[in-house]
Amino acid sequence: MGLFSSLLGNAGAVSKQDLEKDYGQLLTENESIEIGFKLVRDTFIFTSKRLILVDKQGLTGRKVEYLSVGYKSISRFSVETAGSFDLEAELKIWISSEQHPSISKKFNKSVNVYDVQKVLAQHILG
What we know:
Blueprint: H1 2-7, E1 10-14, H2 16-23, E2 33-38, E3 43-47, E4 50-57, E5 63-70, E6 74-80, E7 88-95, E8 103-108, H3 113-125
Parallel strand pairs: 1-8
Antiparallel strand pairs: 1-2, 2-3, 3-4, 4-5, 6-7, 7-8
């Protein structure tokens, strides 16, 4: 189910050690990775200071875009859990005062969306 779920664009959790090895050079002083998820080619990382979206582009994936979103600019978010027939959970994030979500990601059932919600809530509400 993991490969099929990945092909559908659903994300799965990635260990902190793997994320630090691959993306540690993006972190500032006193910034740490809290949790991260990987799609087929893309990754998104929640750090102690921001959300980092890694978008691998092109056929080879050698061209990479790193989008950094400070938690202060996130105005609201929603988390939708997976259902019996719906195999994925979904995260939507609105930046500033936009009407439609700027960021929308899908997770497979192996991801605890309550962990994602908790990280966002701690940074946005805290």
